[in-house]
Amino acid sequence: MRLASGAWPQTFKEAYCEKFHCRDADYERAVFRPCLYRHALPLANLILSKKPSFFQEDFDLIREIGNIDNTDKFRSEIDFFYGRNLRDKNRLRRLLRIRLSAKRLLKLKNEVLRNLIFAAVLQR
Fold first, then answer.
1. What's 40's DSSP letter?
2. Reduced to 3 states, what is the DSSP secondary structure of residue 36?
3. Which of 5, 48, 87, 98 could form a disulfide with 92 if both were Cys (CB 3.0 to 4.6 A apart)?
4. Is a pLDDT exceeding 60 seen at residue 41?
5. Are 17 and 23 in contact (CB under 8 A)?
6. What span, in angstroms and rounded, lies between the C-alpha atoms of 74 and 102?
7. Residue 122, CA distances (Å) to 2, 16, 18 in order
8. Could you give the CA distance from residue 75 to residue 29 in angstroms, rounded to a whole number?
9. Rounded distance between C-alpha atoms, residue 117 and residue 56, angstroms
10. What is the DSSP letter of 9?
11. Cβ atoms of residues 73 and 5 within 8 Å
12. pTM of this prediction?
């Protein structure tokens, strides 16, 4: 299979679910926890149970990157998310960083796709 530069043989969601043996229905929650800032974990469950809409942008991003099959598009979505958080008026999200970490998302992408991209390069 021949891939364009930066293209992946699967979407991020497909690759994530394959690597971590995760059902499609569990994908969003499975990505959410490890990509939160560590200090946000204790509050996240409480906020999620009381006001799930607080994390709407985070889950929208997770859904969006799940459909991506290209490094540049993935990075663009992460950059857009980062910019929104800089301008966010919600102090919990902006100042206390009770939200996803863009850096953690990029690390997760690299972990998920490392072997997948390597295998695709070998097939060229």
1. G
2. strand
3. 98
4. yes
5. yes
6. 11
7. 10, 21, 20
8. 21
9. 30
10. S
11. no
12. 0.86
Report residue 59 as tokens: 């889950």
Q: What integer pLDDT is reported at residue 90 of this predicted model?
A: 79
Instruction: Identify the pLDDT of residue 40.
Output: 93
Residue 122's CB: how many other CB atoms inside 10 A?
A: 7
Distance CA 75, CA 67 (A): 13
Least confident of 47-56, 69-78, 87-96: 87-96
Q: For the residues 47-75, what does the mean pLDDT come to? A: 96
**SS3 call for 95:** coil
- CA dihedral in degrees (70, 74, 80, 81; nearest 10)? 160
The pLDDT of residue 66 is: 98
- Residue 14 and residue 65 in contact, taking contact as beta carbons nearer than 8 Å: no
Extract the tokens encoding 82.
């980062």
- The candidate with the shortest Cα–Cα distance to 102, out of 114, 84, 121, is 84
The dihedral of CA 59, 60, 66, 72: what is its sign? negative
Determine the pLDDT at residue 89: 78
**45 vs 59: CA distance, rounded Å:** 14
